[in-house]
Amino acid sequence: MNALRKIKVWVAAFAVAAAFFGVSASYKQRRTDPSVFLPTGDLQLSGLAPVFAASSSWDGVRGVTTFINDVTRGVDRIIVGLQNSGALSQSSILRTTSGNLKIKLNPNFSSSVTSTALGARSYNVSFEAWRNDGVKFLELYFDSATARNEALVIWQPNVVDATVNPAGSNKIECAMSGGASNGFMVCSWNGPIENPGAVTAGRFKVDPNSVSGLVSVKGAAIAIANPCAGGNADVYAMAFIARNANPFYTTARFGFNDNAIAATVCGGANPLNNAYFNINANGFASDSSRYFVQEGVTTDLDPNYPTVASVNALFGELGGAADGDGVSITTAVLSALNVVFRGAASPDF
């Protein structure tokens, strides 16, 4: 079987990943069978405003956690599928049409691509997908199938899932650098992605650390609804640190304010900070109490959880100068975000 035929056989597996990229564009906690690799429904970050009661105020933390897992698994699934098909060993560009997709793979791409978060980076392989009508759906750039240290994925969810947000051309971009163990990932998007929309733009960064066994996440999003006084767009900000082992003890912090990244609520005290989560807590619940343990944690109550001080310090990195990886998450950055495809708009076949 030649490479072109193999890639046509493999396209069914890609379609599963394509379904993921369509439905995982926005974020709301929902129950999912843990045996299912990808989510089965739309996710909305409707838990932005901390005016809801107790655990529902933390839907953003749960939703982003789900999204992180799905992005990394989805990208891995595509790359492994390409590797297993034998397509990456080819010396020429492969083009194929299967079902509702046009797919183009360049195993010798070896060019620079710019992301909103990391600027220009060099990638060896490019993978692009369009609907049969020529509307672009996805771009994936990476260094190699074996290393997978550098990757950039950009996708437009409503191309394959009209229930997400049938209007507009809003896109999500996730840039990964340094490898899975001690690298990082930055995801940025223009909104609204979901339907109805909750945010106009967002960015968050994920930092795993294999030595400490911790994963740190920080991010912010501009909300569409603006309940805070002041007349400006309100900003949801959050940070959490999780232990990277079952039951994934997690400590989280968030805020919601007028035109500001802060741990307060509309400029006032936020009595909900901080909160504990682990997957053994209410694991079978179908509402926002799932994984929720306790909030209002101001001092360390359990040595299993990352410290309050460490999470507060992580949250403090938001809104200021770029971090050690050159990533900035500020209100100015969010307001200026413009996620676009970097390759050709239309297929050449």
Characterization of the model:
With 349 residues, the chain is α+β, with helices and mostly antiparallel strands. Helix content is 18%, strand content 29%. It is built from four helices and 15 strands. The protein has helices at 3-23, 59-85, 308-316, 331-336, and strands spanning 94-98, 101-106, 111-115, 119-123, 125-131, 136-142, 150-155, 172-177, 184-190, 199-209, 214-223, 234-243, 250-258, 275-277, 292-295. A 13-stranded antiparallel sheet has the order 1-2-5-6-7-8-9-10-11-12-13-14-15, with helices on both faces. Helix 1 packs antiparallel against helix 2. The chain is globular, with a radius of gyration of 20 Å. Mean pLDDT is 80; it is low at 1-55.
Notable features of this structure?
single chain, 13-stranded antiparallel beta sheet, 18% helix, globular, disordered N terminus
Q: In summary, what is this structure?
A:
This protein is of the alpha+beta class. It has 4 helices and 15 strands. The longest helix has 27 residues, at 59-85.
Radius of gyration: 20 Å
**What is the beta-strand fraction?**
25-35%
**How are strands sequenced across the largest beta sheet?**
1-2-5-6-7-8-9-10-11-12-13-14-15
Order of helices and strands: HHEEEEEEEEEEEEEEEHH
Tell me about the biggest sheet?
13 strands, antiparallel
- Specify the oligomeric state: single chain
Average pLDDT confidence is 80
Shape: globular
Query: Which residue ranges are poorly predicted, with pLDDT under 50 across at least 5 consecutive positions?
Result: 1-55
The count of DSSP E runs of length 2 or more, i.e. the number of strands, is 15
Helix content: 10-25%
Count of runs of 4 or more consecutive helical residues: 4
Q: Give the helix/strand class.
A: alpha+beta
Task: Give the termini separation.
Answer: 22 Å
